[in-house]
Amino acid sequence: METVLLDDECRPIDKPGVPGEICGRGPHVMLMYFKDPDKTDEAMKGGWFHSGDIGVYDEDRYITVVDRKKDMIKTGGENVSTREVEEVIYKDPRVSEVAVVGLPYPRWIEAVTAIVVPKPDQRIDEREIIDLCKKELAGFKVPKAVIVVDTLPKTPTGKILKRDLRKMYQDYFRDKP
Q1: Which of 80, 95, 120, 132 is the most exposed place for a label (fewest CB within 10 A)?
Q2: CA-CA distance, 145 to 151, in Å (whole number)?
Q3: How many structural domains does the chain have?
Q4: Alpha carbons 166 and 117: distance in angstroms, whole number
Q5: Cross-strand partners of 3
Q6: pTM over 0.85
Q7: What is the Cα–Cα distance from 103 to 165, expressed in whole angstroms?
Q8: Do residues 66 and 54 lie in contact, with contact meaning Cβ atoms separated by under 8 Å?
Q9: What residues does the AMP-binding enzyme C-terminal domain cover (predicted)?
Q10: How confident is the model at residue 175 (pLDDT cuts 50, 70, 90)?
């Protein structure tokens, strides 16, 4: 079995810390999606099975998963791992849950946006979360907005539905410069 990180043009990534999609090929990789040739073509692009997971190599060429490809945010020409931003926000002890999503933004394509559920009887101010992120993240990874809500939409198994959040707040930055 071979495993590699590939960029969006199916070129191998060799530098540590540069994110790429985790892809594999070998005798144990699936052959096709049942009765879905289009999905098969997408998943098997370039002769590699595309997992949908984004990873980075460390100095020893071990791969660390950093996010799902569909959850990566493209903002101002940079890629942002939602998981990285969420991990910083979870350092605030008042945060019960957080989901970071990219919302349409005229200037940057997508704006990093944190949707936060505070713990019971706790108040969270947008500025405090942004200041926390500024201390620990590169500027382009800092949320442009923090939306405080009572609950996040979830699947029956408890997984946060980021696609629903992106749809619910798709017009949030509509009138921003």
Answers
A1: 120
A2: 17
A3: 2
A4: 16
A5: 24
A6: no
A7: 9
A8: yes
A9: 84-159
A10: confident
pLDDT, one tens digit per residue, over 15-25 is 999 999 999 99
Q: What are phi and psi of 170, to 5 degrees?
A: -60, -25
Q: Which domain holds residue 28?
A: 2-67
51: left (phi over 0), alpha (psi -120 to 50) or beta: alpha
Q: Which amino acid is at 75?
A: T
Compute the half-sphere exposure of residue 6: CA atoms within 13 Å on the CB side of its CA.
Answer: 21
Q: Using CA atoms, how far apart are residues 44 and 23, in angstroms rounded to an integer?
A: 9
For the record, the structure tokens of 35 come out as 């009765």
Q: Are strands 73-75 and 78-80 parallel, antiparallel or unpaired?
A: antiparallel
Q: Is residue 63 part of a domain?
A: yes
Q: Nearest CA to 27 among 49, 56, 51, 59? A: 49
In the listed set 42, 67, 92, which residue is the last one of a domain according to the structure? 67
- The answer to whether residues 77 and 112 belong to one domain is yes
Please compute, for residue 39, the number of CA atoms within 13 A of its CA located in the half-sphere on the CB side.
9
Q: Are 119 and 149 contained in the same domain?
A: yes
Per-residue buried b or exposed e for 27-63, using 16+ beta carbons within 10 Å of the residue's own CB: eeeeeeeeeeeeeeeebbeeebbbbeebbbbeeeeee
pLDDT band (50, 70, 90) for residue 64: very high
pLDDT for 177 beyond 90: no
